[in-house]
Amino acid sequence: MANYSTNEFKGGLKVMLDGDPCSIVENEFVKPGKGQAFNRVKLRNLKTGRVWERTFRSGESLEGADVMDREMEYLYNDGEFFHFMEPETFEQHQASTDAVGDASKWLKEQDICTVTLYNGSPLAVTPPNHVILEITDTDPGLRGDTAQGGTKPATLATGAVVKVPLFLEIGETIKVDTRTGEYLGRAKED
Amino acid sequence: MTSNLWRPSATIEALRHRAALLAEIRQFFTVRKVLETEVPVLSRRATSDPHIDSIPTQCGGDNAYLASSPEFGLKRLLAAGFGDCYYLGKAFRQGEAGSRHNPEFTMLEWYRCGWDDRRLMDEVADLLSEVLEIQQVQLLSYRELFQRELQLDPHNASDSDLHRCVEQEMDLAFSPADRSECLDLLMSHRLEPTMGEGITLLYDFPADQAALAKVLPDESGTPVARRFEAYVGGLELANGYWELTDSAEQLRRFQADHAYRQKHGLNLYPYEERLVEALRAGMPECAGVALGVDRLLMLAGGYKTIEEVIAFPIERA
Fold it and tell me: Are the Cβ atoms of B188 and A30 closer than 8 angstroms?
């Protein structure tokens, strides 16, 4: 892989730091008066999701990371691995529970996800921003209580639990924002 | 996709503010009878400062350099007996780009004959309080700041204490090479944000950060650089010296910079030996200071980044 110098560090650039692939979040050039120039860099560790803040000497460089994002269809979970397929090549990839992480609670078969590959293997999975899922369990609905705006927990087909309005019932399908876990509305019938 | 890079990044209001600020600065010096002068921006000599990189170019088949500051030209005018003078115009520094830096920027630099750094600090405070309408001025020695925030004496702390302090305060991707780098790290990461909204004049720097300032013992007997910096809201605005006038010492520092550059694999360009000749001929005792005008405008107009006050920053230039 190519090396990137601190002045090439831009948001989204993927580099190796301490043996882990990272994505640059922010890069600030600092130079005290007549002193040495530094770069204060925020990087997201793509394995753990944690954000690191590191200071580099200006002009130092890091090795690029062999990381790429691919759109893939989620196929199924065999109990050990989550299976994805590239829609154009039909190439299949299996992702470990660690790589899928929190995304697992939003994964519905045939939905298109973003799979981050590192050295060709799935490193992380990002679900679609909006998913449509069926309610499999919730307290009975309360009719005529729509104005009050109260919420109750509802369990969805994938296992996720979200807060929904009181009038919703088991068997209904709803739209949810996976980034916030927020209920967006009833899913429209096709 | 069409590119918007032909457009200025600054608003018309920011450019009007810039024009008014330049007029205000000129008025400030007219009243005080300091002469506006032009010195070469395209020079046959480069800076020697190890942490500043000149931008090399060509002129008539010879090597030439864009001036990183008007310092050498102004000092040669002083040595020729021209008296108090200032420069308000462009300066250039390789690789300095960020939210507070642009490789081409506007600099104000002025010299006062017969003054020392303390007296010039007062004039810097006058200019800043006039332009920024800030009354609060804090005088703070470099040592006081380190002791207040880090319980550390920057002049006398051991190397291991300095390294330990840096380790505690920040995550580095490298090990600091020397004391000076430790102090720079602590200043830029830890201390600048503590300086508050008023004007802070920080003085008496470590002797090994003297650049072209006199080095003299302070009241405790520690040799310190008679150099100061002005900050507002943690933003460094100006850097001033009680100027070195000793030609032999000047030559020694140029040679030391040259050796440092050689040792660290930095660009080696010809240093300004005509400044050494000027000092030998006799430059008056004086104090001088350089001030970043773009940053002053950022503060005066409440702008967060330098792109907002420069019509065409480097990526649009």
Answer: yes
